[in-house]
Structure formats: structure tokens, C-alpha cells
Design goal:
By secondary structure, the protein is an alpha/beta fold. About 35% of the residues lie in helices and about 20% in strands. The protein has 10 helices and 7 strands. A 7-stranded mixed sheet has the order 3-2-1-4-5-7-6. Strand 4, helix 8 and strand 5 form a beta-alpha-beta unit. It is globular and about 45 Å long. The chain starts with about 25 loop residues before the first helix and ends with a strand. Bound molecules: S-adenosylmethionine (SAM).
Length: about 240
């Protein structure tokens, strides 16, 4: 099926002239302008305490759960798929520095890359690349590992599938792909009932991750592989580790 890579132009009317990059994917311009696209959004959300609040106090726990998968000294090449508010990339950069490795971060929004550049340690072995996760202009099997932190729930399912397929393509056989994102909370979790309408209103594709397993969006050749799965905060968050 052809993936509808429609680019956002419609949002331009709702934002100041010049604030929209016309290569912004439609879902991002339409549903996440308030979080990532608008310059005031970047200024507002680049506060770790705020992101931590949105994650119900779990930012550090989820960040560390992802980063410990890679070990202390990270050698070789690591791909971070999309920018993340807070100190995650600086920490990943430090792990890479101590292991003699290097990190590439891709993001489709120049404003996000600029924000990351400003908060990154000057000597961090981190390269920033303007790129769409669904169309990585990177060679096959060129990374030792990859991290996808809270990106998949933002993407409509065709884009989510394309992101996973692209990341699997660029990671070497045997490399780890660590995914952290939302999941269906347990039946007893109050947020299963309270958070659902909030997500439905603000993050329209997020509930896909409550209804289906991340494995469902992996390319068919990986569908039957055993993935390692971790659950956090009563199931509201998950970590999935795919070995390429
Ligand atoms: C990783 S997600 C959310 C992370 C988390 N909520 C946080 O703490 O920041 C947000 C990032 O994904 C980026 N993004 C969304 N769709 C993308 C795509 N198709 N390709 C590359 N980056 C994308 C956005 O530009 C934004 O910088």
C-alpha cells in the first residue's frame, strides 16, 4: 500500500508566517504543533520537570530503562530517532563518549534540531541530521543500535510501520533497537480510565498502542521474532527491545 506522505500546508493559517516548515509531516503539523512545531512550544516544553509531569513522574525511570540497555560505554554508532526534551541525548552522548562511540540524532523539524544543538554539551560526539524517520537517508546496516523514545505513539500507523521498517534497515544484524512508549495500563490503574480521553483528545494516534502490540507494526520478516518486553507504572509505559 502506498504510504500517504502528505505534507502539511493547511496548518500554516493557524501559525505565524514562517513558523511552519512545509516539509512537516501532516500529522505533526495538525496534531503536535503545540508541542514541537511552534517556537513557543519548544520554549515551553524544553523543561525536564514539565515532561516529567506529563509522564507522571516517570521521565528519569524511562530514560534510564532505555539507556541502560546500551551499557555504560557505548561504542560504535548509535541512532536516536527523533529529538526528546530533557537530558536524554546528553546522557546518551556521555555514554558514547566514554565508549569511544558516536551518536546520530535525526529529526524532521529543524527547530527541534536547533533546540537540541543548544542544549547539547559542546564536546558531545553527537551529530544532528534533518531527516524523516519514515525515509531515512542512511545506508543499510550502518548503525550498531537505535533508540526510539516516545515517537511511535505520535505517528499514524502507516508512518509507524515505515519508521520501524527504516530503523530495522539501518541497524546491523544483531544490533538492538530500544523502543519506549505508551501501552495499555492494567485494569486497576486509574489512568486507564482518566488518561484515555486526554490522549484521545491531544494525541489521536496514541491509543493505537493501547490496542495493539508494537510487534504488530514490525515488517513481516520480524513479526515472529521474540522481543523483550518491559512494563512500567502499572503498564502505562512499555519498553520493547528488538534484536535485529
Ligand atoms: C520523540 S517524540 C516525543 C518525545 C517526548 N515526548 C519528549 O520528551 O520530548 C518528539 C519528536 O519527534 C519528532 N518527529 C515526529 N515525527 C517525526 C518523523 N516522521 N521523523 C523525524 N522526527 C519526527 C518531532 O519533531 C519531535 O522532535
Amino acid at each position: 500500500m502506498t504510504v500517504p506522505f502528505v505534507r502539511a500546508k493547511a496548518r500554516a493559517a493557524a501559525l505565524p508566517l514562517g513558523a511552519v516548515d512545509h516539509s512537516v509531516p501532516l500529522y505533526l503539523g495538525a496534531h503536535y504543533w503545540w508541542a514541537y512545531v511552534h517556537p513557543k512550544a519548544v520554549k515551553l516544553f524544553e523543561r525536564q520537570w514539565l515532561v516529567n509531569l506529563i509522564l507522571w513522574g516517570n521521565y528519569a525511570r524511562l530514560r534510564d530503562a532505555a539507556l541502560t540497555e546500551f551499557g555504560d560505554g557505548v561504542s560504535g554508532r548509535t541512532l536516536q530517532v527523533a529529538c526528546v526534551y530533557g537530558d536524554l541525548t546528553n546522557r546518551l552522548g556521555r555514554q558514547a563518549a566514554s565508549g569511544g562511540g558516536a551518536v546520530d540524532v535525526i529529526d524532521v523539524l529543524p527547530i527541534q534540531l536547533k533546540n537540541l544543538r543548544e542544549k547539547l554539551a559542546k564536546d558531545a560526539p553527537v551529530r544532528l541530521l534533518a531527516m524523516d524517520s519514515t525515509d531515512l537517508r542512511l545506508p543499510d546496516a550502518s548503525y550498531d543500535r537505535a533508540l526510539i523514545f516516545f515517537l511511535l505513539h505520535e505517528q499514524p500507523h502507516h508512518f509507524r510501520e515505515r519508521t520501524l521498517s527504516e530503523v530495522l534497515r539501518v541497524v546491523k544484524p544483531g544490533g538492538k533497537i530500544v523502543i519506549v512508549d505508551y501501552a495499555l495500563p492494567r485494569w486497576w490503574h486509574p489512568l486507564r480510565y482518566l488518561w484515555r480521553p486526554v490522549l484521545a483528545r491531544l494525541e489521536p494516534f496514541a491509543l493505537d498502542l493501547w490496542r495493539r502490540e508494537i510487534a504488530d507494526w514490525l515488517p513481516a520478516t520480524f513479526a515472529n521474532r521474540r522481543l523483550r518486553h518491559g512494563s512500567f507504572f502499572g503498564g502505562l509505559y512499555q519498553k520493547v527491545v528488538v534484536t535485529r
